[in-house]
Amino acid sequence: MIATATPPSSPTWRRVAFLTALAVLALIACRWRPDTGFTALIRFGETHAATQIPEVRALPVALASATGYDGQFYAQIAVAGVLEHPALGTAVPDLSYRARRILLPALAHVLGFGQPWTILQVYALLNVVAWIALAWIWARECGLATREGFARWFTGMLSLGALDSVRMSLTDLPATLLVVLATRVLIAERSRGAALWLALGGLVRETTIFAALCHAPQPARATRSQPDAIPLRVDAADLRRAIRRWAWRAAIALPIVAWSLWLRTRFPDAPSNLSGNFDWPGVAFARHLIRCTVELAAGKLDSRYLFGLLGGLGLAGQSIYVLTRWRDPNPWIRTALPFAVLFWLLGDYVWHGYWAAARICLPLTFAFVRTAPLGPIFFLTNLSLLHGVYRLLP
């Protein structure tokens, strides 16, 4: 078992971490307005204003330019309360796809007591609560006794994927919080608790269950004294371990699989929304790098292309770090391995804004930050946090 106990926090680094958290929360508080509350965090788009469900259209909500972002659709599911709402199919494109991530909208609806205005405020702040919770848990994981521990805490909590999820009320940060909780519980050898966190995470964001794929002990192999031995029968202990391993994974996948199947019966004619999300390994990533390089060479020194290049290469470096350690039993590496593979399979739709890739691979970033040695490579692969802070500015 890998020990997770950390020494008592240094008052200096603890104060710096506290001030950092206060600064982030102050930037979030700047989004509040007396008339619209925190709805600026949801990013309702002007072009979707006419198709909002009536309950939302009747409220004073902050409107972002152009199309806004996906948080506006999850928020309307939360306000509707039921997927059978007559206006929801028009208000939410690809409803069956977005309804898979039902836990946050359902939680907002319950905590908002069914009141549309309250539900919107709750939904907008769920990511903020998740960020605060993760900041506390991550401080316990990394420790704040040394500069190294603080650097790991700071890099994870201010990563682009984490801050962007807060800025646009998305599912990525709450899902990563559950992945972090599950990994810590696995380190403590409590697999049932880990299964619960990951099963809940699957209902926040379906990719969360990938964190379970490389965990659990592997079947025993032939001993060194019999390297060429070929077993004539399956060892009963190995079989029991394999059954327990796959039963554990099945238990994690069951809630999201069952929910997805029910959605399929509810929306039998809904088209698949996977087009553009995935591509052959590295192809869309290569196109992204070429696009950023061409735009920068043409003199477009926009943060989208500058950090798109730096951030994309940084994520690639994190993925390579984890993939080259695929034999490492460290639970953080085991958690990150599926996301390290997923990075190379992401398609053009994701790379259209590289921050989407940073959010999808957020568990990879946290695992890298937790395990990689501090040095130039560590900081170079995390330069996109500068863009995350910049995008959070009012």
Walkthrough of the structure:
The chain is built from 20 helices and 2 strands. The protein has helices spanning 11-29, 54-57, 71-80, 88-91, 95-98, 103-111, 116-142, 147-157, 160-167, 172-187, 191-204, 236-266, 283-297, 303-323, 331-345, 348-351, 354-360, 362-371, 376-380, 384-392, and strands at residues 44-45, 63-64. The radius of gyration is 22 Å and the shape is globular. By secondary structure, the protein is mainly alpha-helical. The protein has one domain (11-219, 245-267, 275-392). Helix 1 (11-29) packs parallel to helix 8 (147-157), helix 7 runs parallel beside helix 10 and helix 8 (147-157) packs antiparallel against helix 18. Helix 2 (54-57) links the parallel strand 1 (44-45) and strand 2 (63-64). The termini are far apart.
